[in-house]
Amino acid sequence: QVQLVESGGRSVQAGDSLRLSCAASGRTFTTYIMGWFRQAPGKEREIVAFIRWSGGNTYYADSVQGRFTISRDNAKNTVYLQMNSLKPEDTAVYYCAATVAARDYWGQGTQVTVSS
Description:
Oligomer: single chain
Distance between the termini: 40 Å
Structural class: mainly beta
Order of helices and strands: EEEEEEEEEEE
Mean pLDDT: 94
């Protein structure tokens, strides 16, 4: 089993920056990929960014490209999402996800609210 715990979500103003963290614990030695999804009210969950644990290759949704940066700390089994130039449309519950040993795991979510 793998447990994911997100932190860092809060209310901010448009243009502000915020960093989300996701700490993984449990059987994480075969982590393949970790990433962030988000779900806004009334909308489907969408991918934001992900990073391959080995090699560090990253992917970003077009809507966040150039504003968000995903990174990892292998020693801490933690993935971060640095969010800059936040917009009201970034308001959502942000979920951390991981694929470990061919299984998918999800965190409980952390709320990010961006006011104009």
